[in-house]
Design goal:
CATH class of one domain: Alpha Beta
Shape: globular
Structural class: alpha/beta
CATH topology of one domain: Rossmann fold
Strand order of the largest sheet: 4-5-13-10-11-12
Bound molecules: pyridoxal-5'-phosphate
Helix content: 40-55%
Distance between the termini: 39 Å
Number of strands: 14
Length: 425
């Protein structure tokens, strides 16, 4: 299957090239040219399937020209190697926990799938590939963990010194040789600027094969379709409302594509923090990007979400307003709900899942059936906020072990020439 640019449908690339390039040359976003329907009756016996079997059925049509069945099976086994449990919060409200992977956030799924695809595509190439990633915390951990398993690709992660949590820093700095962490004496924008400059440096690009693990890479959003099937594996085919805590809208877009394949979701809900351009669009029809506002659900602090372009490519305004309902909430609402759910239901939501849960509760006032919120991160990733909600040690054993590991990073001032020398050494 080919992937076209959402800006220009005639610009088409096979899966392999779309993954390697990340972005089409016109700065659009790659989209699959076909969304293959699942066979009739697929959901009749879905309770007998495993998540890995579903992953194979769902992903095969999107990748089969560039990955054979064995390659795809192997990638799926390694990507979907942990559980996706459904926990009852209250009544007919459930949380689908997507955070049991190596960096305790749902981004592990996309990052791992991308890393393993690139591993296959670079296997037969002579040149070394270096992935450059700037992170404000969350994405870097998923990328570091994912690429630590891929030995023929090197990763350089730039993070702002002193501006990531201790757990996040350990997740970036405790891997082997092929994952290198640069502790930049600046902020996230400085890190991002250094990476951007590297991609614009023709001299560097002649001497070094660099690539990105960008969140808008098709190999990051395609595998995210798969866990939307998990509630149906658990409950069978019944009316479900699914709420997605959203920032850049990659997660929700994956759900929308799954629905186009035949996933029988009744209603999708977008839950946003104060960065609420999409809920406002869904209510008013006006899309007005805004400056990013900082909130306690900071992985969703996005003022102009890239995947909005993908949503608009998939649906007309009228359609999207029916399929997705959007709600936005303040930090105060979020914190209050976290406390309430902790006390009443003995369930600790992270701030992102809490925004999704608020949106779910709002919609379920008028919806029937079961409601599910995607719980996108383990609360231990946001201890500063959790401290205000619960006084208990919630660090998983594996995270405790990580905190004992030695930090390995290279401190660097914000200086492009120094960065370039480092890459070329
Ligand atoms: C990235 C992230 C989100 C937002 O996902 P999008 O695909 O960008 O909408 C939500 N929650 C957590 C914990 C995240 O890390």
């Amino acid at each position: 299957m080919n992937y076209y640019s959402a800006k220009n449908k005639r610009l088409r690339k096979p899966f392999r090239e779309a993954v390697i390039e990340g972005l089409p040359s016109d700065n659009g976003l790659f989209m699959p040219e076909r969304i293959t329907q699942l066979p009739n009756g697929y959901f009749g016996n879905i309770v007998d399937k495993t998540i890995q079997e579903v992953a194979f059925d769902v992903l095969k049509p999107f990748v089969e020209d560039d990955l054979n069945e064995q390659q795809l099976q192997s990638i799926i086994q390694k990507t979907f190697s942990f559980d996706f449990p459904l926990r009852k919060i209250k009544g007919n409200h459930y949380a689908l926990e997507l955070f049991h992977g190596p960096s305790y956030a749902f981004k592990d799924i996309g990052a791992t799938f991308l890393a393993l695809c690139l591993e296959e595509f670079y296997k037969d190439q002579q040149e070394k590939c270096t992935i450059l990633v700037a992170t404000s915390g969350d994405t870097g951990g998923a990328v570091a963990a994912a690429f630590s398993k891929v030995k023929n690709i090197e990763v350089v992660i730039l993070y702002p010194s002193g501006k990531v949590s201790e757990l996040q820093e350990r997740q970036l700095t405790t891997f082997d040789e092929n994952v290198k962490a640069l502790e930049i004496e600046g902020d996230f924008d400085d890190c991002q600027q250094l990476v951007k400059q590297a991609f614009l440096d023709a001299d560097l690009r002649k001497r070094l094969n660099i690539s990105s693990a960008n969140s808008i890479n098709v190999a990051r959003f395609l595998p995210q379709m798969v866990y939307y099937f998990a509630p149906f594996i658990e409950f069978g085919k019944e009316p479900l409302t699914i709420a997605v805590p959203s920032g850049n809208y990659g997660n929700l877009t994956a759900g929308l594509i799954a629905q186009k394949m035949g996933l029988p979701v009744e209603q999708f809900i977008a839950g946003a923090n104060r960065n609420d351009v999409v809920p406002r669009y869904l209510n008013s029809g006006k899309y007005e990007p805004q400056e990013t506002i900082q909130t306690i659900s900071n992985a969703m602090d996005v003022g102009n979400p890239s995947n909005f372009q993908r949503m608009m490519d998939l649906f007309s305004e009228k359609e999207i307003k029916e399929i997705v309902k959007g709600f936005a909430f303040s930090d105060e609402d979020t914190l209050e709900l976290m406390k309430k759910v902790y006390i009443e239901s003995d369930y600790l939501l992270d701030p992102h899942g809490a925004v999704g849960y608020l949106a779910l509760v709002e919609q379920m006032k008028t919806s029937k059936g079961k409601g599910i919120v995607l719980e996108t991160a383990h609360p231990c990733k946001f201890m500063d906020v959790i401290k205000k909600v619960a006084d208990e040690n919630i660090l998983p054993d594996s995270a405790q072990a990580l905190m004992q590991k030695e930090k390995k990073s290279v401190k660097m001032e914000v200086d492009y020439e120094v960065f370039k020398d480092y890459l070329l050494q």
